[in-house]
Amino acid sequence: MSTPTTTAVTKTDEPAFSLKDFLSSFMLAEFFKGLVLTGKYTFRGKITLEYPEEKTPLSPRFRGLHALRRYENGEERCIACKLCEAVCPAMAITIESAERGDGTRRTTRYDIDLSKCIFCGFCEESCPVDSIVETNILEYHGESRGDLYFTKDMLLAVGDRYESQIAANRAADAKYR
After folding, report:
1. Helix ranges, the chain (H)
2. Which of 108, 109, 176, 164 lies closest to 133 in space, CA to CA?
3. What is the pTM of this model?
4. Beta bridge partners of 107
5. Which of 10, 30, 41, 157 has its CA 20 to 30 A from that of 89?
6. Closest CA to 134 of 151, 115, 118
């Protein structure tokens, strides 16, 4: 039986002690580089915004509060195809539908739970008639969980109130779709 032999490998090309590294750490070079960088930005103009008074510009593609839209004649656009409900990854949309006397199908219930919603925009992309849209409204809140549960009437009211703004944002975004 033979015993394995080991050979020691030594690093001869790299010194164990570097005088340059020692002196740079002793003289606090990195510390003074940081001070110079801080001093360079001290006298520049501030970029901080005072939020309620000053607002940053929003993209036309910003996804905020949901709204249901109507046609020009006042009829709601939603045809109750339930694509938005099916595509919603958070299962935040609930739709119930009924058939009208003229044979068309419309929603009787359209609810969105915004506490579940992840604002992915899939509902807006899947809608064949541009009924559900996400507006650029970001200043809304709820003091309880029930305040963020939007019903069909609430969503239609948001759509009616901001229709001109929604249409302008859709037109600005049309070249990218």
Report:
1. 19-26, 29-42, 83-87, 122-126, 152-161, 163-173
2. 164
3. 0.71
4. 97
5. 157
6. 118
For residue 175, give both structure tokens. Answer: 């070249």
Residue 134: which of 61, 57, 82, 63 has the closest Cα? 63
DSSP string of 78-101, one letter each residue: -----HHHHH-TT--EEEEEEE-T
For the stretch 148-162, pLDDT in tens is: 999 999 999 999 999
Distance CA 87, CA 110 (A): 15
Looking at residue 85, its pLDDT comes to: 96
Tokens of 111: 């609810």
What the block records as the tokens of 5 is: 């032999």
**pLDDT (mean) for 85-101:** 95
Q: State the Cα–Cα distance between residues 43 and 20, nearest whole angstrom.
A: 34
